[in-house]
From TrEMBL:
<dbReference type="Pfam" id="PF04029">
    <property type="entry name" value="2-ph_phosp"/>
</dbReference>
<dbReference type="InterPro" id="IPR036702">
    <property type="entry name" value="ComB-like_sf"/>
</dbReference>
<keyword id="KW-0378">Hydrolase</keyword>
<dbReference type="InterPro" id="IPR005238">
    <property type="entry name" value="ComB-like"/>
</dbReference>
<protein>
    <recommendedName>
        <fullName>Probable 2-phosphosulfolactate phosphatase</fullName>
        <ecNumber>3.1.3.71</ecNumber>
    </recommendedName>
</protein>
<comment type="similarity">
    <text>Belongs to the ComB family.</text>
</comment>
<keyword id="KW-0460">Magnesium</keyword>
Amino acid sequence: MASLPKNLIIRNDTVLYCITMKNIDVCLTPDLLHLHKIDNTIVIVADIFRATSCMVTGFAYGVKAIIPVETVEECQELQAKGFIAAAERNAQKVEGFELDNSPFSYMDEKLIGEKIAMTTTNGTYSISKAKTSAVKVLVGAFLNLNAIVEYLKTQPYDVLVLCAGWKGRTNLEDTLFAGAVVDAVQDEFFVAEDSAIMSMRLYQQAKDDMLGYLANSSHIRRLQRLGINKDISYCLQRDLYDVVPVLRGNELVNM
């Protein structure tokens, strides 16, 4: 079905069927988002190592809401108002904040029912970029891949997977996640753009050994230098949680 043109009339004797398929596309870095028209689109933000993996884990373990902000200063302001706050820059915790950017930090029972303010190098920046005009902004990770896919199938909108990347540059792990989404919905969505096709083909090559496929990637090397190997393995696990974080106003909540 993915190879069909978006609008196709099939003649079956005298009956005409008009098929209008939804589009799915991939934006490889938030710095390219301005090239995409997203006013009729659900945007899924993916920052696999590690912001969106943290968010998904937090909701799975009972966090009530996450307030993603672009700057450390905004996060400090929310912290001053009494919010638990998480801040990461260059893959490391910013001094003075309660939480870092490890998903294991979000498994703490003390966070159940809490609202968390969060800023990260790439993930929350991408959410800020997307929320200005998208129909909905969702948060995706391998950890909730199937939950995201099943939700998308129920929606009438086009889809764009927004890879958070690294400081405006493309990264491999977010691209593989985007490809996993495209691969899962290709029979129901029109896959027309090269970024979506490329992402899907990369995922198909990597899916049986993603850790090995990513072994020399830039962000894995960055995290390994910091001794965060367990986070890498954890974030590449598929379908651990049935959660779909969605941005409502300025807060992410579990749908």
